[in-house]
Design goal:
Elements: H1 2-14, H2 33-41, H3 53-59, H4 73-79, H5 108-117, H6 122-143, H7 147-161, H8 173-187, H9 194-206, H10 212-219, H11 223-233, H12 243-252, E1 256-258, H13 269-284, H14 295-308, E2 313-315, H15 321-325, H16 330-347, H17 354-376, H18 384-389
Antiparallel strand pairs: 1-2
């Protein structure tokens, strides 16, 4: 039995366990004669006995706070290594991999600086945006995607390229387009399978008809890592809020909606106004406006533009108190309207009629001059700096 306890002591020591050993007096009347002889032969050694935790701590100098040999708390604190400073989170727009902490809405300067870091000028970035949105717009029309799925597709596209570079050895533009359309259909529960999405995207990108086998071999086992990067661009927040609900709420608050007597439409004037403004909202999603402004600002901007372009007359007017009551600052709505009119004027003037193009150009100049007049007008009591900062 002595050998057993010695072996147990060695095993526990090899495993890094420390415990207190006590000398157990063995009486010959309590043990067998062989064990008593073994105890006499090994009188210098001790048989380990595992004590309760409280007994171990009280009997051990290392745990005895009243022992003079035990170090003080101050000495222990000095000997312990100091924790290092926490690693700062990665800045948005880095291309080192991993998850990003990105702003939910970007400014135009943010997007321009991100493109510049990736080696693209403003003209090259605008050309890339127009190319990718045109391909996805044609794909959405061929697949007959609903408006919500189309808007989600464009939103995922712009948020992806606001974080990741456009030129990368790890993915191609075709692969990202297929992954975006497939993910948008999943998020909006649109029943479209992956093979037709791949065929349409590759056909529109290459300008030739792509067979099913070619599309399958091109996209085989490539979409999962790309869709993870797309989800990182939206911070894994799949609750995508679109402007259509806000648009319906704003229209319900209008007292009167009047269209031209020459214009024929189905349903009520409010329903026709919702369809008209929904088209303006979808045009906003072709650019980066959907990641620069919240959804309720996009909805109010569509109402504001429908009145400015002479498409409808509304009461109350989309200005002043009505904008503030709806939680839409007038400066943001006017800034959005100027950006949309600039896109109509420079991006696709051939899509507009002559009357509409004239209205776009006239409103663009009037809004620009109005904002310039507000910015340069003298402010009473010397509060110009505070007003401009707001």
């Amino acid at each position: 039995m002595v050998q057993y306890f010695q072996r147990l002591l060695q095993v526990l020591r090899t495993r890094g366990l420390s415990f207190v050993t006590t000398h157990v007096p063995l009486v010959s009347s309590q043990v067998s004669p062989p064990l008593a002889r073994a105890y006499k032969d090994t009188a210098a050694e001790s048989i380990p006995t595992l004590l309760p935790v409280g007994t171990m701590m009280a009997s051990s100098p290392a745990y005895n706070s009243f022992s003079s040999d035990s170090p003080s708390n101050y000495d222990l604190a000095r000997t312990q290594p100091r924790p290092s400073a926490p690693t700062p989170p990665p800045a948005w727009g880095e291309q080192q991999g991993g998850r990003f902490i990105t702003p939910y809405y970007y400014s135009k300067a943010d997007l321009d600086s991100h493109a510049f870091r990736n080696g693209l000028s403003k003209e090259e970035e605008a050309e890339a945006v127009a190319r990718t949105t045109t391909v996805l717009d044609r794909v959405a029309r061929r697949l007959k995607l609903p408006g919500r799925t189309y808007a989600t597709t464009m939103l995922l596209l712009h948020r992806f390229y606001a974080v990741w570079p456009r030129r990368s050895p790890y993915y191609t533009e075709e692969e990202i387009n297929v992954a975006i359309v497939d993910l948008a259909c999943k998020l909006q529960e649109t029943p479209v399978r992956l093979p037709p999405i791949s065929i349409q995207v590759l056909s529109e990108s290459r300008g030739v008809r792509v067979t099913d086998d070619m599309a399958k071999s091109t996209m085989d086992q490539k979409l999962a890592p790309h869709q993870q990067k797309i989800l990182e661009g939206i911070q894994f927040d799949t609750k995508i809020i679109l402007p259509f609900h806000h648009l319906a709420v704003f229209i319900k608050q209008l007292d009167d909606v009047v269209f031209s007597a020459m214009e024929a439409f189905d349903g009520t004037p409010q329903e026709h106004l919702h369809r008209l403004c929904s088209g303006l909202v979808l045009d906003m999603y072709r650019g980066t406006l959907c990641i620069r402004y919240p959804s309720h600002i996009l909805a109010m901007g569509a109402l504001f533009l429908s009145v400015r372009l002479g498409l409808v007359r509304l009461h109350p007017k989309i200005e002043g108190d009505f904008l503030e009551d709806c939680g839409c600052p007038s400066d943001l709505v006017e800034e959005l309207a100027i950006a949309v009119l600039e896109a109509y004027n420079t991006g696709s003037p051939d899509r507009l009629s002559a009357t509409m193009l004239t209205a776009v150009q006239g409103n663009l100049e009037s809004l620009r001059s109005a904002r310039h007049a507000i910015a340069t007008a003298p402010i009473a009591n010397g509060h110009r700096e505070a007003a401009v900062s707001r």
